[in-house]
Amino acid sequence: MPNPIKRHENLVQEQERIQKERKDLENSDSYQNAIAFKEAIEKVMKQHGKTETDLLELYGDSDAKKTSKSPKKAKKSLPLKHYRNPHTEEVVEARSFKNTMLKEWAKKYGRETVEGWEFDPKTEKKPAQASDDTTEPSKPDKKS
């Protein structure tokens, strides 16, 4: 089980990083210009009693608007992968390396090493069988 104090510290650091990134974005010229443009458009629409739908009908593709109301096809999600840390025996299920624990492991052990910890729980032997050392001696016999 991960150390809760370390996890808390990591979350605080991540929160500080995100806050800094948000402030940088809010202070950027491109963001300020985008906000000013949006507010100006909304002001003109309000003056003329128009809605976003009216604007889209006027300038947008009316066919595209109609199809956007139809149910959207679900995006194919990434497959769920399982990783086991051999040092701690912790198991993590994740669809990508954006998982906090995988990031921590990758930082500590290297991404390629952590990728090597992936396993398929459907084909993995039971824990009692996995600790059985009878398979180890057979490896040198095969090499001989």
TrEMBL record:
Basic residues compositional bias, start-end: 67-82
Basic and acidic residues bias: start-end ranges: 116-127
Region spans: Disordered: 54-82, 116-144
Record-linked Pfam families: MvaT_DBD (PF22055)
Domain of life of the organism encoding this protein: Bacteria
Residue ranges occupied by any MvaT DNA-binding domain in the UniProt entry: 81-117
InterPro entries in the record: MvaT_DBD
Protein name (Swiss-Prot/TrEMBL): MvaT DNA-binding domain-containing protein
Taxonomic source organism: Halomonas piscis
